[in-house]
Amino acid sequence: MPSSKKSHYKKSIGQTSSGEELWLVDQVLDDRRNEAGIVQYLIQWSGWPKSYNSWEPAEYLSTCRGPLQVYHERKRIKLMKGDSSISSPSKVSIIEIICPHYVFFCKL
């Protein structure tokens, strides 16, 4: 998750009633299972450079259904075509910016 220490990048967009920070997801880039078998997604954060992309457990993305659906549909189409790379078409990026989705994280 982005660190809000750098003032020139966007800060969290708020907090839940339980104190969890809210961050805006630009898009989901990739997925994997870690050593413990937990599904993780590579997240590109809205307003943050790519160097802040981070792997996040699926459980943290419970409110991020739109970008996850777009990612899985792109992946399904690529696999059907026999292409293992998942690129982000510009139309998808525009839709995600216009219709942002939020994700929350437990404090570490």
What attributes characterize this protein structure?
108 residues, alpha+beta, OB fold (Dihydrolipoamide Acetyltransferase, E2P), globular, disordered C terminus
What is the CATH topology classification name?
Answer: OB fold (Dihydrolipoamide Acetyltransferase, E2P)
* Oligomeric state of this protein: single chain
Series of H and E elements = EEEEHHE
Strand content: 25-35%
- What is the average of the pLDDT values? 74
Helix content: 10-25%
Domain Chromo: 23-83
InterPro entries: Chromo-like_dom_sf, Chromo/chromo_shadow_dom, Chromo_domain, Heterochromatin_chromo-domain
Keywords: Nucleus
Main location: nucleus
Describe the structure.
- With 108 residues, the chain is α+β, with helices and mostly antiparallel strands.
- It has one domain: OB fold (Dihydrolipoamide Acetyltransferase, E2P).
- Helix content is 24%, strand content 29%.
- The protein has helices spanning 65-81, 90-98; strands spanning 14-15, 21-33, 39-45, 54-57, 101-105.
- Strands 1, 2, 3, 4 and 5 form a five-stranded antiparallel sheet that branches.
- The radius of gyration is 14 Å and the shape is globular.
- The relative contact order is 0.23.
- The model is unreliable at 89-102 and 104-108 (pLDDT under 50).
- InterPro entries: Chromo-like_dom_sf, Chromo/chromo_shadow_dom, Chromo_domain, Heterochromatin_chromo-domain.
- Residues 23-83 form the Chromo domain.
